[in-house]
TrEMBL record:
Residues 331-430 form the CBM6 domain. The keyword Hydrolase applies. The record marks 149 as: Important for catalytic activity, responsible for pKa modulation of the active site Glu and correct orientation of both the proton donor and substrate. Residues 1-20 form the signal peptide. Keywords: Carbohydrate metabolism, Glycosidase, Hydrolase, Polysaccharide degradation, Signal, Xylan degradation. It comes from Bacteroides reticulotermitis. GO terms for molecular function: carbohydrate binding; hydrolase activity, hydrolyzing O-glycosyl compounds. Belongs to the glycosyl hydrolase 43 family. This is CBM6 domain-containing protein. One of its GO terms (biological process) is xylan catabolic process. Pfam families: CBM_35, Glyco_hydro_43.
Length: 457
């Protein structure tokens, strides 16, 4: 049943990158990966993650939003931007901690962990029509106390919620609205899971359920990864042992899960290699999962090589203009339209009718680094003096020329982003509206020679 992923040519890519494929994501700091392959598209892997803001040195002040990354080949990744921030969740006040996601009755749901006004952590639910979001808050799950580190497992039309933190672990079946549990199904799993601390994750393999979890033997940090097996999703579970022990580059915590993609199982987790060992600045990592003949998980030994499919991974940030503030940007004096065909996403932004009308995008970066900025647009006739700013820096050589009714990608060259949040703005100047339409922008990672992945081949 195990098939190898064939990636022709990836192993002969030019350029060097000291981290190889671990960590997988390097444009921002990421943690708590929740990997999924949805039944609507089995060729794409999505990894939902929390976000550690650079230089915050805090899981309280420094975790405010979520991202999702997608890939078809485990080497080239798309960061779909900030898909949800706690400030867009009415019941939350801070601390956007670990998440999961679930495809349920035709829609995609983000299962979040945030702190409410009563200082209690709750398991939130947000919805989107698309797996890449952005997501809109639906409320939080009732009767799921100590609502941290949620994971959802779906089978045969039933959704099961698992959650836990600080030496707790619970499981229960969810009601169809995903906003409450069936109280009679609630199970305290802690007695069945030695050393359990938090972050359960459940998969099914060969007819049995595997529940993996970070644990602290004798409460000694850092965490290690353990797992248990059961014949039913809610147990009872039989402890099987450890499958990720101490390793160089780990953070104090670990969190993640196993997913099957193109015939092989992959374990996603986080470490602190990218930040040089800061446990509040983590990064997603991944390794192949292998099993012994009896079905037990072989010990995973994390390395910088990781999946070993290429010398490095490449991430491109893709931000749809029409999503505006849902992705952390802003639409000022402009509007969303879909009259012209050929756009991506749900539409595009147009109506740059007045001086200083603009659409802005949130670009986030782990470090002070350069990226290649590209803008997909169309402009029909007349003089156009729209400008592009990165923070307060005007890109003087960027011009929106007439595209004669076609969508074009404008290469704006390499731009500098600072660590943290950056404002990228397309703004109208003095001249009248010339039919300018903005579809999306992209921020592509470049190598040490300033080349994109296409140029480095």
């Amino acid at each position: 049943m195990i098939k190898r992923i064939t990636l022709i040519g990836l192993l002969v890519m030019t350029g060097t990158f000291s981290f190889a494929q671990n960590p997988l994501i390097t444009n921002i700091y990421t943690a708590d990966p929740a990997p999924h392959v949805w039944p609507t598209d089995t060729t794409t892997l999505y990894v939902y993650s929390s976000h550690d803001e650079p230089l915050s040195n805090s899981h309280i002040r420094g975790m405010n939003d979520y991202h999702v990354f997608s890939t078809n080949d485990l080497v080239h990744w798309t960061d779909h931007g900030q898909i949800l921030h706690w400030n867009r969740v009415p019941w939350a006040v801070d601390q956007a901690w670990a998440i999961d996601a679930v495809y349920w009755k035709g829609k995609y749901y983000l299962i979040t962990c945030m702190r409410g006004e009563d200082q209690k952590f709750r398991t939130g639910v947000a919805v989107s029509e698309r797996p890449q979001g952005p997501f809109t808050d639906c409320g939080y799950i009732r009767d799921a106390d100590f609502g941290q580190d949620p994971a959802v497992y779906v089978e045969n039309g039933k959704a099961y919620l698992f959650w836990g933190h600080d030496r707790t672990c619970f499981g229960a079946e969810l009601n169809d609205d995903l906003l409450s549990i069936k109280k009679e199904t609630l199970v305290n799993l802690r007695p069945q899971l030695p050393h359990v601390f938090e972050a359960p994750w459940v998969i099914k393999r060969n007819g049995r359920y595997l529940l993996m979890y970070p644990g602290l033997p004798d409460r000694g940090w850092p965490q290690k990864y353990y797992y248990a097996e059961a014949e039913k999703p809610l147990g009872p579970y039989e402890y099987k042992g450890i499958f990720i022990d101490d390793w160089a580059g780990q953070s104090s915590t670990t969190h993640g899960g196993i997913v099957r993609f193109k015939g092989r199982d992959i374990m996603f987790y986080h470490g602190s290699i990218l930040s040089g060992g800061l446990s509040e600045s983590r990064s997603i990592m991944a390794d192949w999962v292998d099993y012994d003949k009896d079905g037990s998980i072989k010990l995973i030994r994390p390395t910088k090589k990781g999946l070993g499919l290429a010398e490095r991974t490449w991430t491109t940030v893709h931000l749809e203009a029409e999503e505006g503030n849902l992705l952390g940007g802003e639409l000022h004096g402009v509007y969303v339209d879909n009259s012209y065909k050929g756009y991506t996403g749900r539409g595009y932004v147009t109506g740059f009718d007045m001086y200083n009308d603009y659409c802005s995008f949130l670009g986030q970066s782990a470090k002070d680094e350069k990226y290649r900025l590209r803008i997909r647009y169309r402009a029909d006739g007349g003089k156009n003096d729209a400008m592009v700013f990165v923070n307060t820096w005007l890109l003087k050589n960027v011009k929106f020329v007439d595209t004669e009714g076609e969508w074009k990608v404008l290469d704006c060259g390499n731009v500098s982003l600072r660590a943290g949040n950056n404002d990228i703005r397309v703004i109208r100047g003095w001249w009248p509206n010339t039919g300018l339409c903005i579809d999306y922008i992209e921020l592509a990672q470049i190598d040490e020679r300033g080349r994109t992945v296409e140029e480095a081949k």
